[in-house]
User: Fold these one by one.
Assistant:
Number 1:
Amino acid sequence: MNAASLQSFLAMGGYAMYVWPAYGVFFIVLLIDWLAPQFRRRRVLRELHARMTRQDARKNRQSTPSPLRGEGWGEGPRLP
Amino acid sequence: MANWIPLWLHKLSSPPMFYRFAGALRPWAIALALVLGLVALYGGLVLAPSDYQQGDDYRIIFIHVPSAWMSLFIYGVMGIAAFIALVWRIKLAEVVAMASAPIGAAFTFITLVTGSLWGVRMWGTWWTWDARLTSELVLLFLYLGVIALYHSFEDRRQGARTAAFLALIGVVNVPIVHFSVNWWNTLHQGSTIKLLGPSTIAPSMVWPLLTMMIATKLYYIASLCGRARTDLLAWESGKDWVRQIAENEVRG
């Protein structure tokens, strides 16, 4: 494709103002539709991971009860 | 009677199974959609001749019409999934219905904007309250209503069921959009591609259109897989299989 034919292709017979924005909207909207759930997925997993880390930390605190703070005695792992 | 099909469907409807299945399907669907989409674009923008009346402006058809088909097709899928969700309370059906809504809204929005860009020179106006355009706008509002209703509940499943109800009622609009050009005297032209009887469009313009239709269908499958996967993770975040994924992916 040479420069002149590329230029006439881009001109779209005088309708470039309408044809290219239409194609632009098509691709931009679908790109947003594609990316949005991927970002959300990452956020969901990060939040869940943070929650799991917090829960693990709490569990560790409870399994070594501190008599000074008077907590954890009732909820630790039960002895058989 | 082959009973492996219901058995397979039953297995597939379990969230971890579907999560894996969708993860395997998604890259293939999007790759094929991109390849077919590019072929269709080349056929539509380069190979197909100009229209003898509309010049090159008609080339908007290659995205406008497939998007319009998708806006109705996705609503159909959403309606079926909503029906299954309400009757049998299958969690996966709720996920599919709610994940379809934003994709359908995206295609409906594209249809309206590209149609407006096409109409401004061919009809001399960006917008007119004609039956086809109005019913398509109602379709967009139905999609947005389903999305908004879904998000307005604290409990996701309750939100999904309520939104599914609205989705089901809105199904009545689908035939209205489709037949509006026959039932009313509209500015919008009638169908040129017909399932029954010969189409009234040149073959050099038909094949890019149909290729783009397949590409957008594949895109929908890929996007639905991605959205359903994300939703399943969020819905089932207390379950072991999701915790395992969080463990592996956030650390890795």
Number 2:
Amino acid sequence: MKVQIDPERCQGHGRCYDLAPSLFGDDEEGYGQVLGDGTVQPEQEREARLAVVNCPEHAIEVI
Amino acid sequence: MTADDRFVYQAPETDEEYGVRSEIITGPVADWATDFSHLEPEWSADPYPIQDDLRQRCPIAHTERFGGGWLPTRYEDVAAIAYDTERFSSRAIIMGNWRPPSDIAPIGGSPPISSDPPFHQHARKLLLGAFTKTAISRQEPATRAFCHELIDKFEGRDVVDAAAEYAQHIPMRVIADMLGFPPEDGPRFAEFVESVLEGINLPPEDRIERMERLFTYLLDQVNDHLDRPRDDITSYLIGAEIFGQKLTADHVTGAMALLLIAGIDTTWSAIGSSLWHLARTPGDRERLMAEPGLVPTAMEEFLRAYAPVTMARLVKEDMHWHGVDMKADDWILLSFPAANRDPAQFDRAGEVVIDRQVNRHAAFGLGIHRCLGSHLARMELRVALEVWLERIGEFSLTDPAAVRWSAGQIRGPRALPLRLAASG
């Protein structure tokens, strides 16, 4: 399982890096960034799902 | 004094002297579906039953007031408008009796909130860096200390006004620090906020005079920063460039006005509404005192249920849109609060569920105009609630009828008398 952010949709609300700081960070303008290659470890799955369902722009996908 | 001929004293901003004025219509609303007004006391006191009723029977309501406008109450319509910058312009974002001329687009009077593409992204990019979560975290220790100072002043008192004596001061102090304005100017900021956001139905000459006072103050601050440049947003804007050119004086003061006005009333409202909810909901208050780690989750629910900010747009061209006939220059009252209570989008939409796990609310807007200050607002709201819950034990409304709500597009308590069981 991996997470990715659609940069066309992301507006920098920051819900992903608030709710799943082990998977996402912010760039210098506040847009969400996937940390590393986005691989989600089993213990990070709950965080990953929280980020997906709380993004107001529907910008996060799990693949 | 540093010479900068952009800021040579000029007649203050007089946008309101041109553009189009409409007749001022006030008084009781006959039918909210055909005559809505966000400036009437019934709306200020409790807009949610009105919005819920409209969503059922007339999901895009109309009014002839303010020269004509529309009020969508379904999440999907609010989102569609927020995303559609081709059909809906931000050249005016305060719905009132005056429309700026169309040639003010795409910059608008207070960029970037008033800007449309393609200019918008450039004006926004200038400011994003100062408002990231990382940048804002540097303001947190001072914000926390200031919240404690405010509560220290409650020593020995049974009743305090949490809106006027607590919620109001927190965003004022923080934004004054960020802009480099004197912190003791707080009372003037309150006056500017009221002028811009609540004085909508005043006669034009009063509105112009009030706006002149704001822009004269901002020019004074610019000149002070030209004399003594410092590490703050005002000095940054004076030196900033777009397309290799320094910003115009109107852009600099317009952006300062935006940061000052939008940075204060909104968070003041969010803090006040959250405390109002906790004062009248002992179960939620006790749970948050027992589980302070739940504050960030609860806060998102307060933002959803009591979203303080409603925006506005202007329709660009005549069109048939989602079943109604919109005319060029009709207002759209873009109610994020109504969207946030749409049962088609949220389970138990009308309830406040402080441990709600799925909360895709639109309190900070959607699309390219996502609130620039959202990370600042969230920090201030979280710290204000954490300190309040830590310092104040039980608290309750002295009298529900004594709570007074602001009028207009930013909604929150402006008088919130609370009885404190024990403070210290």
